[in-house]
Design a protein that fits this description.
Length: 317
């Protein structure tokens, strides 16, 4: 049996448990600061409850950290130092300073450590990455990416407190920053605007312009201010062509006014990322998405937040 400790028992933890339960020989233990929530999750997955995180570390092979963003380092650093395979929901943390402990622990660890940049597992984003890397659009020049929907909740409304969530750049656009870094390479400069950056509370909308080392420019739009339906979209233009995707134009399922992508169970990106993590952990291999990858995406997100606060471009070289 492979025992996974689920740290945090909010909405997303139920998604993780559902997908992990499809893998063979998985056993669960749960921990949450609210014991009643940990018990409810344990009852759902046939697991047991830990009274403390320290107790959990004595009982598991791996931990899956699904807490508010500002608690990731607290749990991840300790788990990695204890030699436990560790999955951390994105973003890595709310700042690079907070994330440095995770990065250092992972560098010194033989455990499998990864971060939930699930966009890389979405078929349309993965295929777009492959096309660009293979030269299918020639030299990339202009990229547009959009992501967002309504304001997320979270216990006690923690997303609305940007000191805990990071706001849209760190919590949401970090998905697109990771894909862009993976596909186009390093960013040299960012310039950004945001509705919520200066107040640090409440709903948020941000737009950022990223300049890459090879000269390409990307505009990344992220919002928590669209109550109609969630949306993801991208457009990559190069010297020899263009590729594009928009979830509102190409839905496979519409339900209750909300557009969703429909996947076969084995192709669901949330399942694929957890399946890959468990397989790598069992085989003693590094995961394809490293802590360093997540740190670089966070560094770009943080630079965008700084730019939005200062009104000035931020240089990353």
């Amino acid at each position: 049996m492979f025992t996974v400790g689920i740290v945090g028992a909010g909405r997303l933890s139920h998604v993780h448990v559902r997908h992990l339960s499809r893998l063979p020989d998985i056993r669960f233990v749960t921990f949450d600061m609210h014991p009643e929530r940990a018990k409810a999750l344990a009852d759902e997955c046939g697991g047991s409850v830990c009274e403390s995180f320290d107790e959990m570390l004595t009982r598991v092979d791996a931990v899956d950290i699904i807490t508010p963003n500002d608690a990731h380092a607290e749990y991840a650093t300790k788990a990695i130092r204890a030699g436990k395979h560790t999955f951390i929901e994105k973003p890595l943390e709310v700042s690079t300073i907070a994330a440095e402990g995770i990065l250092e622990a992972a560098k010194d660890s033989k455990a499998t450590v990864t971060v939930g940049h699930v966009v890389r597992y979405f078929a349309m984003y993965r295929r777009a990455h492959e096309i660009v890397k293979a030269g299918g659009v020639g030299k990339p020049a202009a990229i547009r990416m959009t992501r967002g929907g309504g304001m997320p909740g979270g216990e006690g409304g923690w997303f609305a407190d940007h000191s805990r969530s990071g706001g849209v750049f760190i919590d949401l656009a970090v998905h697109d920053f990771d894909w862009l870094l993976w596909t186009l390479g390093p960013v040299t400069e960012v310039y950004a605007k945001s509705v919520g950056a200066k107040v640090g509370m409440g709903v948020d909308y941000g737009i950022a312009t990223l300049t890459f080392a090879d000269g390409a420019v990307a505009n990344v739009e992220s919002t928590w201010m669209d109550p109609t339906e969630s949306r993801t979209a991208f457009e990559v233009c190069g010297s020899e062509g263009m590729i594009e995707f928009d979830s509102r134009n190409c839905p496979t399922l519409r339900s209750g006014g909300r557009l969703d992508q429909s996947f076969l169970p084995e192709d669901d990106p949330f399942f694929l990322q957890l399946k890959t993590f468990v397989e790598c952990a069992r085989e003693g291999k590094p995961a394809p998405i490293s802590v360093q990858d997540a740190f670089e995406a966070l560094r770009v997100a943080e630079a965008c937040l700084k730019s939005a606060k200062s009104g000035q471009p931020i240089f990353l070289v």
